[in-house]
């Protein structure tokens, strides 16, 4: 079976900014990373540049972007930016799933289960 093209528009110009974001993750991003994603059996990257954006988490094998959204994402501008960003990422054949900070705080096991299900469904 032919492997799909895994090119995602990696943008080396965003490498330094991605590094900064990895060092300054939100509490919810840290919780998800250290308590689930970093030990997940399929490789997941933190703060990965794709096109002109930086994804919170990215699983290249499943072509899945995982976003953790704080309050700024629910303003009119934030919603419009997220829509544009999702459309751009989907052009690379990626799926974007989003969770709120509240979901990570209050429904952590459910968030982990949903991520696990999506990776297994999309994993090649």
Q: Please, could you describe this protein's structure?
A:
- It is a single chain.
- By secondary structure, the chain is an alpha+beta fold.
- It has a domain at 12-16 and 45-122: Endonuclease, Chain A.
- 44% of the residues lie in helices and 20% in strands.
- It contains 5 helices and 4 strands, in the order ααβββαβαα.
- It has helices at 15-23, 27-35, 76-90, 101-106, 108-122; strands at 45-50, 53-59, 64-69, 95-100.
- The protein has a 4-stranded mixed β-sheet, with helices on both faces.
- The longest helix is centred in the last third of the chain and has 15 residues, at 76-90.
- Residues 1-5 have low confidence and may be disordered.
Widest sheet: strand order? 1-2-3-4
pLDDT averaged residue by residue: 84
The geometry reads as globular
Give the CATH level 1 class of the domain at 12-16 and 45-122: Alpha Beta
Order of helices and strands: HHEEEHEHH
Task: Pick out the low-confidence regions.
Answer: 1-5
Distance between the termini: 10 Å
What is the CA-based Rg, rounded?
A: 14 Å
Into which percentage range does the β-strand content fall? 15-25%
Say how many strands there are.
Answer: 4
Q: Total helix count?
A: 5
Sheet of most strands: 4 strands, mixed
CATH architect. name of the domain at 12-16 and 45-122 = 3-Layer(aba) Sandwich
Task: Supply the CATH superfamily name of the domain at 12-16 and 45-122.
Answer: VSR Endonuclease
Q: Helix/strand/pairing class, anyone?
A: alpha+beta
Helix content: 40-55%
CATH fold name of the domain at 12-16 and 45-122: Endonuclease, Chain A
């Amino acid at each position: 079976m032919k492997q799909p093209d895994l090119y995602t528009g990696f943008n080396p110009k965003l490498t330094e900014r991605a590094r900064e974001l990895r060092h300054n993750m939100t509490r919810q991003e840290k919780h998800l990373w250290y308590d689930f994603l970093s030990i997940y059996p399929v490789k997941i990257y933190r703060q990965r540049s794709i096109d002109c954006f930086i994804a919170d988490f990215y699983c290249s094998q499943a072509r899945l972007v995982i976003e953790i959204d704080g309050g700024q994402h629910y303003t009119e501008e934030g919603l419009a930016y997220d829509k544009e960003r999702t459309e751009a990422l989907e052009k690379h054949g990626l799926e974007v799933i989003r969770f709120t900070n509240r979901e990570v705080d209050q429904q952590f096991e459910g968030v982990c289960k949903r991520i696990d299900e999506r990776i297994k469904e999309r994993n090649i």
